Amino acid sequence: MSLASALAAVPVNVDFPGLGIQNLPVNRVAFEVFHIPVYWYGLLIASSIILSLLLAMRHADRFGLKADDVMDVFIFIIPAMIISARAYYVIFNWGYYSQDWMRVFNTREGGMAFYGGVIGALLTAIIVLRVKKINIALFVDFLIVYVPLAQAIGRWGNFFNQEAFGINTKLPWGMISQSTTTYLLSVPGTDPFLPVHPTFFYEFVANLVIFIVLIQIRRNRQFDYQVFLSYLLTYGVVRFFVEGIRTDALMLGQTTIRVSQVLSAVMVVASAVLLLVLSLRTAKKRRLAKTESSDFVEISKPDSNG
Predict the structure, then answer these.
(1) In whole angstroms, what is the distance from residue 161 CA to residue 198 CA?
(2) How high is the pLDDT of residue 58?
(3) Which helix (H) or strand (E) holds 29?
(4) Residue 141 above 90 pLDDT?
(5) What is the mean pLDDT of residues 177-196?
(6) What mean pLDDT value characterizes the chain?
(7) What is the structure's pLDDT at 252?
(8) CA–CA separation, 116 vs 181, rounded Å?
(9) pTM, full prediction
(10) What SS3 class is residue 66?
(11) Which residues on adjacent β-strands are paired with residue 175?
(12) CA distances from 94 to 80, 87, 103 (A)
């Protein structure tokens, strides 16, 4: 094991003072295989992808899809998701990575952006679905349900890494550790020795709620992209507020504008408008169909005076 890996394997003591939890040992490394460390972050991400795949394959036939098609799409979107998540992070941290190109490939130091992964996975899925001539709207509405579930599981990786936390808080579930203290020493306007928002947990809970809500929407799907747009709306709201209190947000250039907040705001507005338009259009079609049906019944009635 290298020196860096050995240091990463040293447990960090995490405290939740308001909950009476002290010196909770948290280790980034889950276990070792032939002296090679397996990190909790990677293990959780892999587990979330496998669970999502198994659930999607199990329920595919209920929505007129094939389990084999689900597997084919996953084979392509998994590498695309990883590459695009890394590329997104590198692009918005170009000042750091441009100094040494080898840093781009050193993913063990962190640096994966969720939004980048979703964008890459979505574009890749669309290409695969077009090639296989599968209904894109139906498949996207079916599969998007499992994204917040995977997110909820993956966010615990941030806890084990002691990263992606928020600003100081006096709430009883505030968290503090050597990692939060060290990081906040370079963050103006914060107190390194006070607890911080465990934003990973906020997203964990929120994503579980979104997952449950999307299952219900998918079950009663009224029009194309309803489930997909509902995800963009609900997660966009959650991420907008969570991003506002995080201390490691990616900024737009040299500004103080948070990239993920901008993207979240765009997602919320665009998805809300589209949901409204599509909902009204669907309701109008149903009214017209009902009217035409009623007219047909009237015409078909026998003439009593005949």
Answers:
(1) 12
(2) 96
(3) strand 29-33
(4) yes
(5) 95
(6) 89
(7) 81
(8) 29
(9) 0.87
(10) coil
(11) 196
(12) 20, 10, 11
